[in-house]
Amino acid sequence: MNSTLDGKVALVTGGGRGIGAAAALRLASLGADVALTFQHDRSSAEDVVDRITAAGRRAVAVRADSADPAAVIAAVDRAHGELGRLDILVNNAGAFLLGPLEELTLTDFEQTVAVNVRAPFVACQAAVRHMPSGGRIINIGSNVAERAVFPGFALYAMSKTALIGLTKALGRELGGRRITVNLVNPGPTDTDLNPAGGPDAGTINGFTALGHYAVPADVAAMVGFLAGPDARYITGATLNVDGGFTI
Hints:
7 helices
């Protein structure tokens, strides 16, 4: 097993399935102990924990609603308390609410901003209280922050675009502590929410340069790289893992 992250502890929000689960497993494969949050699907989260512990790493699943700031802070503190430290934060949990502008409600707006903008901010704020020199913050955004090719994405794209500013500003602010902050923007990725065999997949594939969806492990590989020692001089950056969707 690769031990680049041996002795490190990571927290992955929304780590029970999809990209979050792949990121949690990738970090564990590199040697980290991993805490992950989930909201509803305890079974999937516990399956990820079981896979990590079977590989010889420690893991814990924490139920937390990312729309609740107190729950986000408690999850960060629990990850630190149960696993003894906190070196890596992956802000992955997200709300994916789409629709025509005139049909979106203020409730939709508040839920999206709470999960996609406020939760990463609150998690970063809580995490840096524990994070040592050399820590890593990795935000998971979306390719639609740079190229929204379909109608109905205004609210989601706006929320993910906010992570660009957060990433750049925190990269500057935390640089003196040798904590790096970077943003990964996935493109079309084969998950439950956007399956590669879905009805719109052919059209979506046509917008990429490579002509096909990513798998979650493709995005997780970038997360693993940014968490490791080879990325120590990268901060404030946006890395697109999108098959050329935005070129």
